[in-house]
Amino acid sequence: MTAIRTRVAIVPDSLLLLAACLLSAGGLLIARAIAMEETHRAINGDLVRQAIYVAIGLLALAVASRTDYRLLRTLAPPLLAVSLAGLILVLVLGSHQYGARRWISLGGGVTLQPSEFAKIVIVIAGAAFAADRRATGRGATVLLGLFAAGAALVVIEPDLGTGIVIGVTWFAVALAWGASWRYLGGIAVLGLSLFPLALAIAIPGYQRERLAVFLDPERDPLGSGFTLRQVEVALSAGGVTGRGFNGAPSALAGVAPRSSDFAFAQLGEFGGVLVTIAVIVLFAIIAWRGYRAAAGAPDEFGRLLAVGLTTAIVLQASMHAAVNMRLFPATGIPLPFVSTGGSALVAVFAAIGILESIAAHRSPRREWGSSPGAAPRAPASR
Q: Looking only at Cα atoms, what is the longest distance across the chain?
């Protein structure tokens, strides 16, 4: 029995790993196609930089998956302090790009985006807090304050999309923790009622213009509405099988953040409907395996941590795709694993590594679809 448990503890979730790697391969294909389109070469600096970020991300995944996730419970307070300090530091020293102050320049064209790592750390800290307590109204309020502190600093940058991800992730963690529906419903109603006021007071003019363009697709087609109109053109031009990743002229040429904010549309243009469906399926696999890891976690900390990380990844992907299909106002949120950007890639790969660690330590008494008190299944003979 000891030998069997030891073996289970080191087996990774291969489907989770495969989905992440295939999605990152899509990002490399986009970078290569853009390089061929703009420089008529298969390799340029942006493609090399993206490949390096993927390699660093895979290294972070390997380290996180081989580290006992329960160590994070002890490290939660200092990690949270460093993360919040980073969010404050970016407001003071951050470089101003695309109307926001989200990045800290490290020199040599390398930047750090603290909010990408803050999403993970806040979930770690929240899971560590909740794992030691019962899901009372007071506890859920303290948990909300923890998430709200990080979300507020992110929204000030401004980064409304990441702020929404953090807020909804709190809801998922609190729900999994056992907070009452009455309490969660009240918070949801309060948040939705205050959202218009937040837009009017705290959200800058360019983000309000994005909302106006979303509500009126015909608004300023050669100005603020131009980008989303080109996104529509790109998705429709891809058809079923796409125009190919061979450097053909793109409808998104000249749109600065096309490989980050509009990566889903760029995949749709180059790879067609088939590739966009594949992307959706891969994120569905991540959701399945992530929540499966939560269901089989041996302790409350691991369960809540897996729920929070999985929700953050899948929600961010859903919001990105919704923006690209004009189902949600533009927020500047990247597509996990696919969009360009070192911080985002390294952070999301680290999150997958933590999920791998939780899955590897799953308890034989808590299998997917079984009740916590069910008897363990007998190991299959080999």
A: 68
Sequence-ordered alpha helix ranges (H) in 110-262:
114-131, 137-156, 160-177, 181-201, 205-215, 226-238
Phi then psi dihedrals of residue 319, to 5 deg: -65, -40
SS3 content of the chain, % helix, strand, coil (to 5): 65, 5, 30
Question: Cis link prior to 158 (omega < 30° from 0)?
Answer: yes
Predicted local distance difference test score (pLDDT) of residue 280: 97
Find where tokens 């929240």 sit: 126
Direct distance between the N- and C-terminal alpha carbons of the chain, in angstroms, rounded to an integer: 14
Distance CA 24, CA 152 (A): 30
- Quickly count: other Cβ atoms within 10 Å of residue 53's Cβ: 21
Q: pLDDT tens digits, residue range 98-108? A: 666 787 888 77
Cα–Cα distance between 152 and 148 in angstroms, integer? Answer: 6
Asked if 259 contacts 270 with a C-beta cutoff of 8 angstroms, the reply is no
- 96 in helix, strand or coil? strand
| Residue 211 CB coordination number (10 Å) | 14
Neighbours of 66 (CB within 10 A): 13
Nearest in space to 332 (alpha carbons), one of 176, 158, 175? 158
Q: Report the range out of 148-162, 165-179, 236-250, 354-368 with the highest average pLDDT.
A: 165-179
State pLDDT tens for residues 296-344.
Answer: 999 999 999 999 999 999 999 999 999 999 888 888 889 999 998 889 9
Rounded distance, CA 66 to CA 283, Å?
A: 23
Measured CA to CA in angstroms, residue 289 lies from 38, 121, 219, 283, 339 at distances of: 38, 21, 42, 10, 22
Contact 273/4 with Cβ under 8 angstroms?
A: no
Q: What DSSP string describes 97-147?
A: ETTEEEEEEEETTEEE-HHHHHHHHHHHHHHHHHHTS---HHHHHHHHHHH
Average pLDDT over residues 257-267: 88
Residue 143 phi, psi dihedral angles, 5° rounding: -60, -40
Can you tell me whether residue 204 is helix, strand or coil? coil
H/E segment holding residue 95: strand 95-97
